[in-house]
């Protein structure tokens, strides 16, 4: 009397449940970021303003550091047809596009 007769144990594998919860949380974060982006980006026709709006959403919600560099021709109104560069730009830039940084954002204070 008073001695254990046996021992019983029960184990439940919750791996799938944890994976599903992690995927659901990731999907919620992505939808929240998309919702914020749709509300904040594109309220202006000014390229530099739109670039700053983009970075306001992207940093730190999506990444820690981001920049927006635009083709100089877009900013000066000398844009070439999509997929091609105007001959004058090809010769002056040595075949590469001239870019200008219009926005920069960092989640880190010293970046």
The overall average pLDDT, rounded, is 85
Q: How would the global form be characterised?
A: rod-shaped
What portion of residues belong to β-strands?
Answer: 5-15%
Helix residue percentage: 40-55%
Low-confidence stretches: none
Biggest sheet record: 2 strands, antiparallel
| Cα end-to-end separation | 73 Å
Give the strand line-up of the largest sheet: 1-2
Verbal overview:
The chain starts with 14 loop residues before the first helix and ends in a 5-residue tail after the last strand. α1 (15-40) runs antiparallel to α2. The protein has one domain. The chain has a two-stranded antiparallel ribbon with strand order 1-2. It is α+β, with helices and mostly antiparallel strands. 47% of the residues lie in helices and 14% in strands.
Topology, element by element:
Layout: H1 15-40, H2 47-61, E1 65-71, H3 72-76, H4 87-92, E2 99-106
Antiparallel strand pairs: 1-2
Helix pairs in contact: 1-2
